[in-house]
Amino acid sequence: MRFKLALVVLAMMLLGGCASRSDESADALIVVEPQEPDVRYQLEVARANEMLSAQFDLEPEQLAQVHYRRATLFDAMGLTALSRLDLNYALELNPRLADAYNYLGFQYAQAGYFERAYETLEALLELDPEHPYVYLNRGLVAYYDQRYDLAVDDFEAYFKQQPDDPYRALWLYFATLEEDPNKARRQLAQQRVEFANEQWAWYLSDLFLGVISEQEFLERYAQALLAEDETLAERMCEVYFYLGKLKAIQGNPKRAAVYFRLALTTNVYMFVEHRFAKLELEALSPDRDDSFDNYY
């Protein structure tokens, strides 16, 4: 509880310092406790460890699946280095394990090693051109590598697969905004009218289009339509991240950085928003080491 209260006080101080007196959005901010690792994941890791240490008589493909499953569990708990080791070992055992390339490409992108991410996702495309996430992941690589024309192409392909998904519309908006701001706004507004459904994240498009204010969004929509299997930490991870994007677009890097840091405090490691909040922070302060040493 003390930790939660400290986060609340820190967030209010930081946001209050960045905002003008007329901006009351800091008062509406919801700060959540970090999400703890799922006990089920920990138990599954223990079972995978037993299988690997007992040296069961498994075929290489079966052994690769065990390493791959443990890698996904490590990834969900934020243990990226352990996950990456398992993914590489799984691919040594079964070089045609498409989902392992997908995870590995995502992790390279998350770490900012874009060339390695491109190579890995190209390998995935060769194995499985219909993989459901390859265009999202390659679009994210291109977006954070500032190759916005390529990002637009991939996000368009990803959007067309399911146009009523508000997140697909948002990422296409972000990439198009770098190329043609007027087109980006027109396109998002048209998608909002044509494809919007009951998913809460369509309210995010209203936020970026200026239909609702930041304060109104936080007060009325940030916790709207919370699904039964959705935690408040998961929802707020998304809310913090997209508010950070909004502030970055509006030219308020200090406020944006606070929101991105809040997204990281949720510990919702599996979400795209958590994965790339760090890259967003680095884009606001681009002093980072791009060396590939010791990155497996």
From TrEMBL:
<comment type="subunit">
    <text>Homodimer.</text>
</comment>
<dbReference type="Pfam" id="PF13371">
    <property type="entry name" value="TPR_9"/>
</dbReference>
<keyword id="KW-0472">Membrane</keyword>
<dbReference type="GO" id="GO:0005886">
    <property type="term" value="C:plasma membrane"/>
</dbReference>
<feature type="repeat" description="TPR">
    <location>
        <begin position="132"/>
        <end position="165"/>
    </location>
</feature>
<keyword id="KW-1003">Cell membrane</keyword>
<feature type="repeat" description="TPR">
    <location>
        <begin position="98"/>
        <end position="131"/>
    </location>
</feature>
<dbReference type="InterPro" id="IPR023605">
    <property type="entry name" value="Lipoprotein_NlpI"/>
</dbReference>
<dbReference type="InterPro" id="IPR019734">
    <property type="entry name" value="TPR_rpt"/>
</dbReference>
<keyword id="KW-0564">Palmitate</keyword>
<feature type="signal peptide">
    <location>
        <begin position="1"/>
        <end position="21"/>
    </location>
</feature>
<keyword id="KW-0677">Repeat</keyword>
<dbReference type="InterPro" id="IPR050498">
    <property type="entry name" value="Ycf3"/>
</dbReference>
<keyword id="KW-0449">Lipoprotein</keyword>
<keyword id="KW-0732">Signal</keyword>
<keyword id="KW-0802">TPR repeat</keyword>
<protein>
    <recommendedName>
        <fullName>Lipoprotein NlpI</fullName>
    </recommendedName>
</protein>
<dbReference type="InterPro" id="IPR011990">
    <property type="entry name" value="TPR-like_helical_dom_sf"/>
</dbReference>
<comment type="function">
    <text>May be involved in cell division.</text>
</comment>
